[in-house]
Backbone:
């Protein structure tokens, strides 16, 4: 018997029910809208809800459904979009005052693909301002709360998307990942988050934080749902100069496979002081389970891991400084009033429009790009980035994928780290290396500690998302 709370099911399950004509797209939407009305006032996962648009889109799905047309596997399925991904006619704020009333005149490529497949856009999710943060506390639209325990953060910067999926306020969601912003909130909320290889999904319409690091990806209840969503959003896009023209497999073909003789690496540099011992024990348990099911687990080395955080924050802030220069009050977004000249307008617009964390990163980036410091900091960081990438290349000569923690700590309380940027930055110590190297990664829930979710991370070779889906799906099937 099907539970009347349809919002708790995966997209794959709901598609199966619709194929059998047990439920309709309208019933799914109503379940999700009821859950949002019930839960979101205390979670604050959404910045903008698009109820009327969703109802119109569901009407179109209902027509296809009643005609007996073959629905796509996301037709009629509600999806939430992170609020730094452009949506035609729908406010897109980046959770910032400077863009609080910005309405894009076009859709991001990934949004166009979702609409073409019949997905139903339920709203735009809360995030750290301009994706700069690890807790969704820097949003100009208020803090998002972790649905598991409300006094804890949901992670960031895609905390709104992860919280919405966790709470059943959407079935699927999109996030963006610059230094772990899909994987870390997915771990903190007990859902699955996938960062594809850089260039696998189009960045056209993604409002940039750091252009060489950003990548759009899915946040879902299951690995199977991630595979389904990847099938719809991946692929070459001539509108994006960083998009890579490589064939996209059917990611669903990697589901329901065994993992015999898959070689999995454990990086010794990730299991050192600083990692919560309880999280370490969980990951060792995951490794043993893989071994019991035929995988080969061996220790590997990623020797330049200790430089990842400093390298990341030099490169990311430098690119942010450049990208955010466009928000000056002239072309779009917030414009300061009561100013006497152009220079004052620039200063007041940016001072009023940006939050503390964004200003901090712009200042850091401007500093490392300035004359006299470019070679000492930014250029050196680019060289170390190459060394980090080479570490992974050498490791993948021995193994098929890498098992690692997502975060060194459990979800922390709201307000606990927000005033200490260094502690906040270290939360991303295990995730930033993938963005520096352009590699794919998936975060998969593996239990609870003190009632808080824990996830593990699988890291793959470039454009080998299939192996990650195969191994992660096997884990979910084995553990139920």
Residues:
């Amino acid at each position: 018997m099907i539970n009347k709370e349809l919002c708790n099911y995966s997209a794959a399950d709901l598609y199966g029910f619709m194929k059998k004509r047990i439920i309709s797209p309208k019933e799914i939407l109503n379940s999700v809208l009821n859950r949002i009305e019930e839960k979101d006032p205390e979670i604050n996962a959404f910045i903008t809800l698009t109820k009327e648009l969703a109802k119109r889109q569901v009407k179109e799905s209902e027509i296809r459904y009643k005609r007996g047309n073959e629905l796509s596997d996301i037709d009629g399925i509600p999806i939430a979009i992170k609020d730094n991904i452009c949506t035609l006619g729908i406010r897109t704020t980046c959770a910032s005052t400077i863009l609080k009333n910005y309405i894009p005149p076009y859709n991001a490529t990934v949004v166009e693909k979702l609409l073409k497949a019949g997905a139903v856009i339920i709203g735009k999710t809360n995030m750290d301002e301009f994706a700069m943060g690890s807790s969704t506390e820097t949003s100009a639209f208020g803090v998002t709360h972790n649905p598991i325990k409300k006094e804890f953060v949901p992670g960031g910067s895609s905390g709104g998307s992860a919280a919405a999926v966790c709470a059943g306020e959407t079935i699927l969601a999109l996030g963006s990942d610059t230094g772990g912003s899909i994987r870390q909130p997915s771990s903190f909320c007990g859902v699955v988050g996938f960062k594809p290889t850089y260039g696998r999904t189009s960045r056209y319409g993604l409002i940039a934080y750091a252009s060489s690091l950003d990548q759009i990806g899915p946040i879902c209840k299951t690995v199977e749902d991630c595979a389904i969503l990847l099938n719809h959003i991946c692929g070459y896009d001539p509108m994006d100069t960083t998009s890579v023209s490589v064939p996209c497999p059917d990611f669903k073909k990697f589901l329901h496979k065994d993992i015999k003789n898959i070689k999995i690496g454990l990086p010794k540099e990730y299991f050192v002081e600083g990692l919560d011992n309880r999280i370490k024990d969980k990951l060792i348990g995951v490794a043993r389970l893989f071994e019991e099911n035929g995988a080969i687990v061996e220790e590997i080395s990623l020797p330049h891991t200790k430089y990842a955080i400093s390298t990341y924050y030099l490169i990311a802030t430098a690119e942010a400084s450049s990208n955010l220069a466009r928000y000056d009050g002239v072309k779009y977004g917030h414009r300061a009033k009561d100013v006497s000249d152009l220079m004052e307008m620039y200063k007041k617009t940016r001072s009023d429009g940006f939050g503390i964390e964004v200003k901090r990163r712009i200042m850091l980036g401007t500093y490392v790009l300035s004359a006299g410091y470019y070679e000492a900091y930014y250029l050196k960081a680019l060289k170390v980035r190459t060394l980090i990438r080479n570490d992974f290349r050498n490791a993948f000569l021995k193994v098929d994928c890498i098992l690692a923690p997502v975060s060194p700590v459990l979800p922390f309380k709201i307000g606990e780290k927000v005033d200490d940027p260094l502690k906040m930055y270290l939360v991303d110590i295990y995730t930033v290396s993938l963005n520096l190297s352009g590699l794919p990664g998936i975060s998969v829930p593996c239990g609870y500690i003190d009632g808080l979710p824990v996830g593990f991370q699988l890291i793959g070779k470039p454009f080998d998302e299939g192996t990650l889906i195969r191994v992660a799906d096997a884990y979910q099937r084995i553990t139920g």
